[in-house]
Amino acid sequence: MPLHVASFYRFIDIETPESVQAGLEDLCGAEGLLGTILVANEGFNGTLAGSKPAIESVFAWIDKALDLSSPVEARWTQAESPPFKRMKVRIKQEIVTLGRPDIRPQARTGRHVPPAEWNALIDGPDTLLIDTRNHYEIDVGTFPAALDPGTDSFRQFPAFAEGLADVARDRQIAMYCTGGIRCEKASALLQEMGFSNVNQLEGGILNYLEQVRGADNRWRGECFVFNKTSIAVNRISRKVATSNAMRAVVPCPAKISRPATIAKAYRARTVSIIRASGVQVRNDVALKVSDHVFQYQAAFFQAADTQLVDQRVVRQAVDQVVEVAMADAQLTQPGVIAKAFSIDLVVHCSV
């Protein structure tokens, strides 16, 4: 029987995240749920997998414990196998990392624009359309004419926003992201900077793709998501399979139809990790390393059918495949880049 998977978030003041963490750990454990929930003073953000009644019982507990003004809303999907290894409830400074925990969308954020009204907004001659996602996500798909902030992580978005100094503060701004949560903070940031007409796509790209069909759909390309389930990728450089330890690009709808686009996104992502490691390399060398890492990493997980159970195992596995890739690409300082890859993988994997 397929598992139900629910993704949810809410920006709300939480005075004692520790007590919320303890309550959620007890309840999720008792209900046999798997997934991750982040709790911070600014709210909560999570994904749960299990039976629908069990997940709904958690939502009911949150509603009561935090005295929410409206019930928790979630995006529901299904999975044939568990997409997570265990249940984690973690306390964080932010539930989505902008580097500005002082910004509270629950107090002020952009106007939520339903998908049915989005096209009219972005068609406005004076509308400035901003994609708040990272460049490797934008490479896979975007709305035409959208401004690319050129970021490797959401934490870099404030620096991009500072570059909008010459934009009129009363100009119409339209922002979007994958599911909506990044826009909550990005739009609040722009309002803090004095922009008065800030709008955001309600429910993000995923909601738009669900509701706007056919010729009315303005989206071009596919949608990059951080996926923790297994996925097969056909014909990138050869047929390989990724395990649930690898980040993958999932088109919308979720059918792999453009492997070349997937390869491009993976290249962009791995190159950004190499750059972030601080090692100075030529672009052609970085691309070569990216291709090598993809092939070795995919082959490693496929051959071993690895069940990654802790961060130490993840780091060891990634160190092995990256060091081989570095040697083949004749790149110096393999340890530095291997560490960058292992940290990136650990942060984004449910292990």
Query: How many extended strands?
Result: 13
The helix-and-strand class reads alpha/beta
Approximate helicity band: 40-55%
What low-confidence regions span 5 or more consecutive residues with pLDDT below 50? 227-259, 299-311, 342-351
Strand content: 15-25%
**Radius of gyration over alpha carbons?**
21 Å
Helix-strand sequence:
EHEEHEEEHEHEHEHEHEEEHHHH
Apparent shape: globular
- Determine the N-to-C terminus distance: 24 Å
Biggest β-sheet: strands ordered side by side in the sheet: 4-1-3-2-5
How large is the count of helical segments? 11
Compute the average pLDDT.
Answer: 77
Task: Describe what this molecule looks like in 3D.
With 351 residues, this protein is of the alpha/beta class. It is built from 11 helices and 13 strands. The chain has a 5-stranded mixed beta sheet with strand order 4-1-3-2-5. Strand 12 and strand 13 form a beta hairpin. Helix 1 (17-31) runs antiparallel to helix 2 and helix 9 packs across helix 10.
Topology, please?
Blueprint: E1 3-11, H1 17-31, E2 34-40, E3 43-50, H2 52-65, E4 74-79, E5 87-91, E6 111-113, H3 115-122, E7 128-131, H4 135-138, E8 141-142, H5 157-162, E9 172-176, H6 181-192, E10 197-201, H7 204-211, E11 220-221, E12 231-233, E13 240-242, H8 259-276, H9 283-304, H10 311-329, H11 334-348
Parallel strand pairs: 2-5, 6-10, 7-9, 9-10
Antiparallel strand pairs: 1-3, 1-4, 2-3, 8-11, 12-13
Helix pairs in contact: 1-2, 8-9, 8-11, 9-10, 10-11
